[in-house]
Task: inverse folding
């Protein structure tokens, strides 16, 4: 069965987005406001949006479920196999 | 909370109506029960569809603390508490690490509690009891805190018309009532009601706040002029706390037993997948809105200190209702939703504690066969009643403070992360599979490190929580133990 964590590129992008949300690049720099909002917040916000959309997309893309299969069928078939 | 004035009478009336509705949902849940088994009582017969699943997962993840505590933290820390949006997304990202496989195994092997997976996967009685104990300690803590928060919220919102003690006892009785009647079905339906109230009410209130006070950019500009330190670039220490919180919540919160049991209770993988896909997007709206409320509070009420900062949500809501007549009922809905969120977190904790006692402790200690364990439905209500009565008694004791224990609950819970994440990596028979003793070694070291650092007075190590330090060591030791076994 496919699942998100079996895809290293996806998981790496997820980790990068998570790390990117930490505004470490702005430490020790002067505050810059852009449209009234600090630039570091735009940066962290952008990375957080990326993390959120990637997570959502990852579930939809990589968690493959047989659409025609009834849950009980899966349980019984795999129960016999197991 | 005297400024709530006119609200207090309406809150009393609405609370009464809400509690009656909860009992009605309990009765409906009872009528929907299909069989007298633990799976039917604790997991709604594994029949929860997409919408209810989404709303119950939402209500589980967003407790009353998210709605009143997060704005309070924003008030204290400023915009740096935007980290909460990231870590709330991180919780759903954390599910990618183990949920698809855990759901499939739960279906195949009929798991009811989180420990069922560990028992099936590792077959280590020591690990089973350690896990059940950690989960119980975490849930006891969490439930007790919710009971106390419920008492304070009712007393505050009704200006003392419902005193703390009456609110704790009455609220606990209502929760116990609908839970005993309808089990997980009643709990999930009440979660759905609470989640809908919170989502709709919060969106309307934030819309009205933007209309009344200004859009986020304008509010932040005002804040920058009033308190430049609250919008300043975060320092290195804040960045470390940010990362540590992300790890702590991203690895710890998906292990909440009540969250795992909702995963077990999903009707189909397709519906669970859709629910989690939507859940990943919700913090962008829900938590950003909460941060905005805290920021508005900083601009409107700049001199709150201590506990008063935690009441900033209610102050902003009361201000909005005074300024904008249209806002009265949406504000009332949000205030009720915050109380409802506390109650829904409490009911989820109680249901999970009851299942762990019944199945993990009683069932396993008596070594009952699976079919006998499934039939322990008479024990479940007894356990729920005894646990609730005990915790209500503790909540009524004067001078009780739990905050220290609350803070470390995640740091304890997160130590189970390798068991679930690495446990779902391989099949039991796979030669590369991690074994129970590897997991136990890591768990013991991680737990010892986290609690030891706390006991020694270290609340953080270079900005990192003791639990985060512990779980890094925990994972490292589990990998090292497997590698060592491979060499031998």
Result:
């Amino acid at each position: 069965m496919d699942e998100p964590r079996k895809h290293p590129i996806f998981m790496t992008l997820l980790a990068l987005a998570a790390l990117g949300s930490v505004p470490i690049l702005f430490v020790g720099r002067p505050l810059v406001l852009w449209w009234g909002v600090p630039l570091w917040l735009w940066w962290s916000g952008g990375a957080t949006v990326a993390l959120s959309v990637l997570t959502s997309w990852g579930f939809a893309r990589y968690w493959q479920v047989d659409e025609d299969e009834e849950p009980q069928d899966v349980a019984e078939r795999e129960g016999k196999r197991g | 909370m005297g400024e709530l004035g006119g609200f207090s009478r309406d809150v009393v009336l609405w609370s009464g109506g809400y509690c009656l509705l909860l009992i009605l949902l309990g009765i409906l849940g009872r009528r929907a029960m299909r069989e007298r088994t633990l799976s039917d009582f604790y997991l709604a017969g594994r029949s929860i569809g997409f919408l209810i699943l989404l709303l119950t997962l939402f209500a589980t993840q967003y407790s009353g603390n998210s709605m009143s505590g997060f704005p309070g933290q924003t008030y204290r820390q400023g915009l740096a508490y935007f980290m909460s949006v990231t870590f709330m997304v991180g919780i759903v990202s954390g599910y990618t690490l183990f949920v698809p496989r855990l759901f499939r195994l739960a279906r195949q092997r009929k798991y009811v509690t989180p420990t069922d997976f560990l028992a099936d996967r590792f077959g280590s009685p020591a690990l089973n009891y350690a896990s059940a104990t950690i989960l119980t300690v975490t849930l006891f803590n969490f439930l007790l805190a919710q009971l106390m928060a419920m008492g304070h919220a009712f007393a505050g919102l009704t200006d003392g018309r419902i005193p703390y003690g009456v609110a704790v006892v009455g609220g606990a009785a209502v929760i116990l009532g609908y839970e005993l009647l309808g089990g997980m079905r009643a709990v999930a339906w009440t979660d759905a009601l609470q989640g809908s109230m919170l989502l709709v009410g919060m969106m309307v209130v934030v819309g009205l706040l933007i209309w009344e006070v200004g859009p986020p950019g304008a509010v932040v500009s005002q804040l920058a002029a009033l308190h430049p330190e609250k919008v300043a670039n975060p320092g290195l220490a804040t960045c470390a706390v940010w990362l540590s919180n992300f790890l702590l919540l991203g690895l710890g919160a998906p292990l909440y037993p009540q969250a795992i049991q909702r995963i077990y209770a999903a009707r189909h993988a397709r519906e669970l997948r859709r629910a989690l896909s939507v859940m990943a997007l919700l913090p962008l709206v829900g938590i950003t809105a909460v941060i905005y409320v805290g920021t508005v509070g900083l601009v409107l009420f700049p001199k709150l200190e201590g506990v008063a900062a935690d009441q900033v949500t209610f102050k902003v809501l009361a201000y909005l209702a005074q300024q904008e007549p249209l806002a009265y009922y949406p504000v009332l809905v949000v205030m009720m939703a915050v109380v409802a969120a506390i109650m829904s977190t409490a009911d989820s904790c109680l249901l999970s504690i009851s299942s762990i006692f019944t199945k993990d402790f009683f069932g396993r200690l008596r070594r009952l066969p699976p079919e006998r364990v499934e039939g322990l439905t008479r024990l479940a209500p007894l356990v729920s009643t005894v646990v609730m009565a005990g915790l209500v008694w503790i909540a009524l004791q004067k001078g009780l403070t739990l905050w220290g224990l609350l803070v470390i609950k995640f740091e304890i819970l997160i130590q189970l992360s390798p068991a679930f994440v690495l446990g779902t990596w391989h099949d039991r028979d796979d030669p590369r599979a991690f074994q129970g003793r590897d997991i136990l070694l890591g768990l013991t070291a991680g737990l010892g490190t986290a609690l030891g650092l706390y006991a020694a007075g270290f609340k953080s190590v270079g900005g990192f929580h003791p639990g985060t330090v512990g779980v890094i060591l925990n994972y490292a030791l589990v990998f090292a133990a497997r590698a060592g076994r491979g060499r031998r």
